[in-house]
Amino acid sequence: MLTLLRRTALGGVFTAFLAILASGPAMAQGLLRDAGMEHALNILARPLLTAAGLPANRTKVMVVNEMGLNAFVANSRTIFINAGLLLRMQNADQLQAVIAHEVAHIANGHFARRGLNAQAMQRATAIGALVGVAAGAASNNPGAGAGVIMGIHSSARRTLFAHTREEEAAADKSGLRFLARAGIDPVALAEVMELFKGQEDLLPGRQDPYARTHPLSRDRVRAIRMTVDALSPLEVDRGDAEYWFGRAKALLSAYLRSPSYTLTRTKASDTSDAAAIGRALAYYKKSDLEAARAQVAILVERRPDDPYAQDLGGWIELESGHVQRAIEAYATAAELAPREPLILAGYGRALLAQNTKAGDLEALEVLEEARARDQYDTRMLRDLSVAYARTGNPGMASLATAERYALYGQIEDAAIHAHRAAGALPTGSPGWSRAQDVIHAANQNKRR
């Protein structure tokens, strides 16, 4: 389930992404990462990636915990959409229009051409942190569950992701074609752009981030509408897209907003799965566990093979202190989705909560599998450190702690634990080598 994590970010390999700090810790933004929400967003992205001739499962869509209207790409594998922008979207077409535009930047090579500029800026702005995805610490927000954060220097991000008008025009045209090929009405992109009209007339400090990183103009909106008139989208069934859009938006809205907001705006006549998800989170936030369970039960009964329904139920039970019920739900979720790292991390966390020798050993196995599939979830790393410590492996416990601090951007603390790990682990072992990566990154940081 959703958890807000704070973190500073890194690249694909540990040594690469540890080059984060140049002049102090980066300002972190939260990336809200939930297994069910990501699944929904990736379903919406796949037809657009296919239309662009890109691998359908290579690029992920993630949600940044900011209410400003913005979307951007950090590399060819990740599209970021601000929570505020997603919540403003009225239907799947509009959200897919945003995704299509960002896919076009990837397909047209715009990010790749700025790679050299990013390298040149790395030392001064910690821009290396922007080329990957790292993870962060769990917040104390009672509505939070499990997630990941990407840390970003806001000024560096604006510089790196600022698009020229030529790039924007090209991305608009390509994105419109991708929408039509995927059977999505391309007029949705014009509808989205209407949200930003007038932004250029505001002072820079009052503009939404999208207006600063994606140059807008009334001429651009007119050009989009002219192109739309010449396109005829393929005829496809849009029901599945609307279903997953509804689930993603309902979950995000219920997580970010008050339970009273969710419950008053969900009509009693709304019996959809999205409504059940929103009500479950809202009732949990109101400490009405039985009502929350009832909504999860509705979802599970309708979709018994849906791992994300079980994940939601497991998170609610664990956060409410019902460990055994949480374990049962997470076990089912993990059986249904054995390759989903966030579900595995939740399962390991529930097993660890038993505080028994058998539970700790099983938790260690599950958490190691989660780490193998997602190295950047700091809450998972915290739990993994506890599991190692309880099962008599202090060296690996220190390593997990070192990596967690590194992901926070607390490189000096990371180095302390990495030295402890290196001293306790066999020289040349995989764990020892990872500890050396942290130590090396810390030494590099000192020399800057």
From TrEMBL:
Pfam families referenced in this protein's UniProt entry, alphabetically: Peptidase_M48
Extent of the signal sequence: 1-28
InterPro entries attached to this UniProt entry: Mito/Outer_Membr_Metalloprot, Peptidase_M48, TPR-like_helical_dom_sf
EC numbers, comma separated: 3.4.24.-
Superkingdom of this protein's organism: Bacteria
Leading EC class: hydrolase
Span of domain Peptidase M48: 46-226
Cofactor(s) named in the record: Zn(2+)
One Gene Ontology MF term: metallopeptidase activity
Keywords assigned by UniProt, alphabetized: Hydrolase, Metal-binding, Metalloprotease, Protease, Signal, Zinc
Listed name of the protein: M48 family metalloprotease
Biological classification of the source: Bacteria, Pseudomonadati, Pseudomonadota, Alphaproteobacteria, Rhodobacterales
